Amino acid sequence: MSKDNVIDIAGGKTPGERDSDTEANWLLRGKLAPPQQRVSAATRTVLLARLSARKDAALSLIVSPPGFGKTTLLTQWFHALQKSPDTVRAWLSLDEADSEPGRFLAGVILAVAKSGVDVGSLEIAARQQSIDMNVRQLVATFLSQVQRCERRLVLILDDYHRARSPAIDALIELLIDHGYPHIHLVIASRQKPTFHVSAFAVRGLVTTYDAADLAMSESEAAEIVGAGVAGDELALLHRRSEGWAVALQLARLWLDRGNRRPGALHEFSGRSSDMTDYLSEQIIQDLPADLRDFLLDTCILDRFDSSLADAVRDRTDSAEILERLANLSALIIRLEGARETFRYHGMFQDFLMQRLHRGPAGRVATQHRRAARWLANAGDLLEAVKHTIRAGDTRLAVELVHEAGGWELILSRGVDYVRILLKLFSDVTIRANPVLQLLFAYLELKSGHYDSARELIRLSHAYLDGSTTHSRRDYLVVAGLARAYMDDIPTLDSMVEYERELESLPQSDHLGRGTLMSAVAFTALANGDLERVEQSCRTAIQEMRAAGSVLGANYFFLHLGQRHLLGGRLREAEALYRESLAMAEENFGVDSGLKALSAAFLAESVFWRNEITDARQLIQDSCDTIETLDGWLDVYATAYEVLIRCCQASGNFDLVLEALARASGTARVRQLTRLSMLTTAWRVEQLVIAGHTKEARAEARAAGLAQIAEQKGRPGMSWRVRLASTVALARLSLATGASSNAFSLLESATSDYRSCGLIFPSYRLSVLSLIALRQRGGTESEAVSRMEALLQFIVDEGATRLVLEHGDALESLLHVAQRRNRELILSSAQRDTTARLLASLHSASTPGAAEFSSREIAVLRELCSGSSNKTIGQLLDLSENTVKFHLKRIFKKLDVDSRAAAIGAAVQRGIVDAQSLSRAAQK
To answer: Does the predicted TM-score (pTM) go above 0.85?
Structure first.
């Protein structure tokens, strides 16, 4: 046998490839590269040529029963592709755990990253198994990264039958549909996949290979079995094996064990399946007893190294035995990884398992228990639990889950991981164990299945009598989170219970204390107790950092940001949201659910700064994600209000209605009563803005908005709904001439909100109060005095949208404030803000004013009102020379050379209105 016919995968990486999997844990070992086979293998020249000739197609599909050399063929091609300058190749070996979309995508991303393709921060999320299931968006992001690569990607998925599921089939269809022509997908499977690729097949872009294609020719069989076999014996072996690669490999091993004698192969009889059993029996029979015992002890393992083998065997000589078994490398296959890791050939493992189960009954269970303990300590809880289930030891399985953290696995491993884990248990087992009950309840909460979560939590409560302190802590944490998700928020008084439980937890239980603190933060925020929100968040952030939970700390950054925004500290809130967004991207990837949450809250800050385009982009991307993942009322209330107001700013009422429908749908699906009430109030407000006052009045009456808006005293649990209802009802009253009613309603609510520290909501209400005051005939001095306070808040926090959202309703008052700036003693910042607001209001309705600065608009308006240069300077706090400078620029932009011509051009462009000219005429 020539050296060229021995496969060695130990070396040889293209310069662009990185050893990303050498840093990974046991879970990834051996999955991101072909197995290291040092066996006699015929070079499949014809098949390799066919594969290479068709790599420009969309899909190569290789389907055959086990033992036909699918993996060996693809291993050879994988290494041959290394020499292809226009190709980059990636390998992923699949198993049953990959049947969950998140884990499957994580594997694909890591495999492609290992090949040298830059997948950006997706690699971070994949490595931490924190892939969120907004599948289409994630796949789109992944494919956009792949498309930046100048070379074509060949992505090989081996053992597809082990991971096959409807969800994975759907992902494959996405990858094929949107990845071609940048990706050539290669799938090897024991059964024909069920995904649909007919559109590509009819275009000749799918190539299939079956058992007949993979069967060895007689010349290839000769390469495998080696020299010294007569032609008639080789022909007999080839005929009886039907070119089946595994049978030929076993024959080679048998012959090499001292059986190379004339006529030896004539001893075989029967078809190839009988032959493999016979050959396996002969190989095992010739081994020393300690080697046979090793094979039987370790055949229960899907993959193993010497340490795991030692644990299962309760011995310390596994490394030595593996060296002695090196000549069986066709059957004991070395996997690529940082340590020596192996797996058995599937058919040989089946043969060994049959022999093992014929032995003592207790032996198998003992081996599985030992394997479970070792794997759990190595971090592979999924495999550990599989072994306990095979041992029939559910008690140990539950114990391992408890030791791994129970419900905390959601935080440390993610939703998909826990979903796979719980599938290993029967429903009876789950419902009989509080650890699994609470884990499943938390999973159901994260999935939006609130009825199921509620039932599981009630069931868990029934097991509390006589339980440990730790069990009670777990129950309180999950029950508290459930209240937040289901918007079943208790009153402030109930927080005493949470705080008492916090005192009972050990100081070292940072994650438990931090998570339980979230119930305090949720309750305080829902009740409008901002001081307690801040206290609980700052404490919880320290606890989460001590626990090493970046995810937990990030959530509290969002809560703290809400506290700052509601308290009127918008700039501090935005800084926190941006920090949270950066942390989410750095630690969990650009497509994480946490990024979507951070973006939703950031969009609110950006919106009130009147950065509408940025806010719209942030919120559109965010809503697409949070609707498919977990969230709570604050998330949805913030996201949908920003989305609705961004649509309103675009002037497209159809988009507003679509946004309202999305909010209503989420409220219905998530069973969020307060979100439903908020959506109704937003609908009334938007109907008024669009001029549908009749319809708005009917909606408001049917929803009882008046009763909500007319509440008195501390807003408490109803502060969100009361705010939205008051705004909607006030707009309706103003639109129908009932300004006195609107003013009374707004003044009462403003006072109540301000008294409990809800400063930003109070300013939202005070803007409407200003409009109502002007409509009902209030004095100009009183209105301008209120405007001065509002301007200072806008200067401090940048919330220009507070004024701009109301358009022309406040424009005249801003002009008054601008004219009376000396009397009001406006600061330069307030004057600049006033000028910018007026310019923004005018440019929004007057495209012809877009080329003018806010100061030039102010000067031009005063010019049109008949003011002299000296008067303009006094009104705008400018020197006469500065006024002349601005007029010179204005004349140039208008292409005029006199004041009268400038006024005419301003009117023609729509920069000034008839009232301005009327004042000029009067002067």
So the answer is: no
